Amino acid sequence: MMQFGLPVLRLTTRGIFVLGLLSGLVSCGSLADPPASVLPVQQMVVEVVAEFPHDDEAFTQGLQFVNGQLFESTGLVGHSQIREMDFSVGQALRWGDLDLTWFGEGFTALPDGRLVQLTWKAGRAAVWDIEPFSLATTWAYGGQGWGICLLNPTTLIMSDGSSALTLRSPEDFRRLGQVEVTLDGQPVDRLNELECVDGTVWANVWQTDLLLGIDPATGAVTHEVDASMLPVDRSSLGSDDVLNGVAFHAESGHFFLTGKRWPTLFEVIFVPADGVPVIQS
């Protein structure tokens, strides 16, 4: 199960940094570490651990592991779904269809075990029961919906394609606040699919192969992850067929990445771009 709170630096058995964020702890009689907003941004790349088949007709909008089971949301008007997947063979075990006029976007699991799926411009979030797999209710919100993740049991974080992340209640979706995401003091827009892991928000930047690790307390980007080396045959993809699926698998500590209409789902770890492990004492 996901643990909530500040993330810590973890090393694989090969001594590779997987996730991390300096906590800025202050010890008695000593100077505090610099705040996250002024710490150097960690430059990372992806290392592929395994590859699995993926539905190359799925306009992927989001991925999420729920109790070890992979779920996926898809978009396009008239084709938007939420699916429970057997990722080992790339097939849907079961699915629910959104309203035919809605364009599905990202989703996440709620503390009560249900799933909440955004829509692009309809201003409605679909709340799904998993057992049985059915639409339970909808929540209204203003503006666009792009990505969403559960930061902690009382806070959802939602993106809308801008540089702002909106905090919402997982009980009724009411707005709780907002944080501006910045890199070196400058706003970062086109924030899309989100994944919350141990207090860090990971976001892919739409139409790029870039993933950002974000401190939700300050909005500061703490990590940049270059996923451009994923072995995807781009010649067979359209201009919209970009990276757009990020899920963290808690049991392995690995991330799973895919894109819109990509034929492959990648299991990866994030490693330092310079090859030097980062260790926090």
What is the CATH fold-level name?
Neuraminidase
Q: Specify the CATH homologous superfamily.
A: TolB, C-terminal domain
Q: Percent of residues in beta strands? A: over 45%
Low-confidence stretches: 1-34, 277-281
The total tally of domains equals 1
Order of helices and strands: EEEEEEEEEEEEEEEEEEEEEE
Give me the side-by-side strand order of the main sheet.
Answer: 16-17-18-19-1-22-21-20
CATH architecture: 6 Propeller
Radius of gyration: 18 Å
Mean of residue pLDDT values: 85
What is the total tally of β strands?
Answer: 22
End-to-end span in angstroms?
A: 25 Å
- Provide the CATH top-level class: Mainly Beta
Using the alpha-carbon principal axes, give the shape. Answer: globular
Secondary structure class reads mainly beta
Helix percentage range: under 10%
Major sheet summary line: 8 strands, mixed
**What is the number of helical segments per DSSP (H or I, 4+ residues)?**
0
